[in-house]
Amino acid sequence: MLELRKDIFADERDDNLKEIGKGTQRQDMLGHVTGTSTYFNDHQLQGMLHLKVLRSPHAHARIRRIDTAEAERSPGVRRIIRGADVPRNLNTLLSLINFGKDDEPTLAFDKVRYKGEPVLAIVADSPREAFEAVAKVHVDYEPLPAVFDVEEALKAGAPVVNETYPKNTFTYHDIYDHQKLRFGDVERAFASADHVIEQRYQMSPIEHAPTETNGSIAAPDTNGRYVVYTSTQALFFSLDTCAKILDVPSNTFHFIGGTVGGGFGGKVDTLTEPLAILGAMLTGRPVRYIFGREEEMQYGPPRGAERIYLKDGVMRDGRIVARKVRAYFDSGAYTRLSSYAVVKCVAHLPGPYTIPNVYGDVYCVFTNRTPATAMRGFGVTAMDFAIECQMDKLAHLVGMDPMEFRLLNAYRDGDMKAHRREAKNTALIECVQVAAEKAKWPLREEFKRMSSRKDGGGARAAIPATTKDAAPARAATQQRTSYDRLPQPAAHAQPPQPTPPAPVAPAPAPQQPSHGAIRFSSVFGSRRR
């Protein structure tokens, strides 16, 4: 077991972890209340230039021509950056761990797929001069049909949002267009249930609205490296992403994080660092790139919209016997982290309740909306909201107290989850009991005596016979993205599709998932605790 050296780190960690009820001072509190905390934008470097981006006014359009002649003559302009200047102009964050395909350009080169997509960047002596030059760029667009609804995007004949995924759905394990969960026989259970209820829940995108907007400053260092001051929430993800996009070794960069002026998940994507660094590389001077408030609100990635259908079968005594889930995550125009959110969502079904028959289909769908990203429990939060709304409706349907209804159906230690794993260290019953006590909510004595440690397992631990879906044919081509640096096509043209190799016999299954996503605790069952 790995432990900290207590002789060295005695003042860093108290293994007793007795903090509840104590007024422990945060390490950064004094800096915050005195206004002396250092943020990335507090670094004012000598000779610093400023980068601003021209963004698409269309949700979906083909780029016919970009005319920068007038902008090049604009006062203070030091460099205009096009997609052709980006060494590797396709990326997606999770391709660093071989989960998904590169699908998002740093600067659009053939099409724009959402309103606000970056098309061109201008580096100038001042923010105002950069803004004025951006306004002088003329782009000839050919507007294309767009789709903004997840279910419309899946219909035959819908506009293709992202050619990397021509069916408008993310592809899992090379062949599946969604994540699925099968446990028992829900249709048979619905037929035997006393009540069946189906409801639709729709969540809107949510902007994180941090006080500090996304931004970074990149500067050439004296040793041939580049120092980057950034507000990122994911320092090493951002460093490796920049190394990949700019096609240089990762030790080329020295990333410096620090205080983040509000993140909540909205600063996980690497949005400003690649262009700031590229600007510094092309000009030899420090470059600052920070979102304005309108950019942050309109074009910064939100929590994705989610549409959830829940169908439940329940008996008169309050036992839920079947739950069927169909859900759609609106990824926007590119993948970002939505594919992972779907995996988290399915791993959470059917909520903290013992239900003997569970069926789930969850899709990551591409639309012509701003790409979505992480936000405080994304992938779980919205599903929890829908499930708990459904629980209240079910309790009302069978005439039970909503808290007692939850106690009746809650996981107990030893129960079998729909993912075929034994429930351990469950505590929903005790949490509901304490909440009821604090709220002075009356519970009947039999429910007050319930415990997560009693009455679990046994028949509740059985794995029911489950009808499996027919497996789709596996694609002949390898669809996972490697991190090998291969020669890239010219960025002004759409990258050609590789010629599929001849089909080969499938290789033996590896011991660990080959896409590397095992580092995420809820993706393939590995748990950090």
UniProtKB/TrEMBL annotation:
Residues 495-511 have a biased composition (Pro residues). It comes from the Bacteria. Keywords: Molybdenum, Oxidoreductase. GO terms for molecular function: iron ion binding; oxidoreductase activity. Residues 464-494 have a biased composition (Low complexity). Signal peptide: none annotated. Residues 449-529 are annotated as: Disordered. This is Aldehyde oxidase and xanthine dehydrogenase, a/b hammerhead domain. The keyword Oxidoreductase applies. Residues 34-145 form the Aldehyde oxidase/xanthine dehydrogenase a/b hammerhead domain. The keyword Transit peptide does not apply. It comes from Bradyrhizobium erythrophlei. SUPFAM superfamilies: CO dehydrogenase molybdoprotein N-domain-like, Molybdenum cofactor-binding domain.
